[in-house]
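Write out this protein's structure.
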Amino acid sequence: MTSLPLAEDRTDCWSRVGVWGDRSCPELPPVVHCHNCPIFSAAGRRFLAGPAPDGYLEAWTARLAEPEERDTGEARGVLIFRLGDEWLALPVVALREVVALRPIRRIPFQAALLAGAVNVRGELHLAVRIHSLLGLVGTNGHAHTPSISSSGESKSRLIVAGGDKETWVFCVDEVDRVFRLTPNELKPVPPTLGRALARMTRGVFRSQNRAVGLLDEARLFDVIRAGLR
């Protein structure tokens, strides 16, 4: 990863040039989200290792005591990715990280949805066949093979996602970017969408002159959970 020119430029860079800023950071496309950047991780470790600033505990106590705010309808971040010929998206809040392809080890299990187990940062997670789950299997009955860029490198990635207590990993053919989606940009699901995919899609929006289906993460995770029982 390319180093930033000055040490002071790294301070709070995520809110200036990262996903919470103007998104001009040159390292943002390859890492997708600041959560995956070593600069952000190092800042978090320094913060946790140091003493709490004056008034920090009191401020958070007051903030947590406030009534829950209602949805203001503001834009929310979604990660756009490709499965076969379909461009889809998941809310950023449902994602853990995006990582390069790595071996998926088969394990004895009866569920057809389960591809195996994969090691991500020293932790084993279940890998699911999301192509099959969404009805996007190839003509040979298997998931699409990894996509290759013009330089010969694989464009496929592993997405680590899940709820509060469960985490799953699935392979996508390409990761595009984080998109700020406003509620009025989301349109109804077209009738041409496959049945399995339509059941788990909240709606469709436009990005870079293409239609992108926004997956319903709660329903998707429910189906994965049921399919692994």
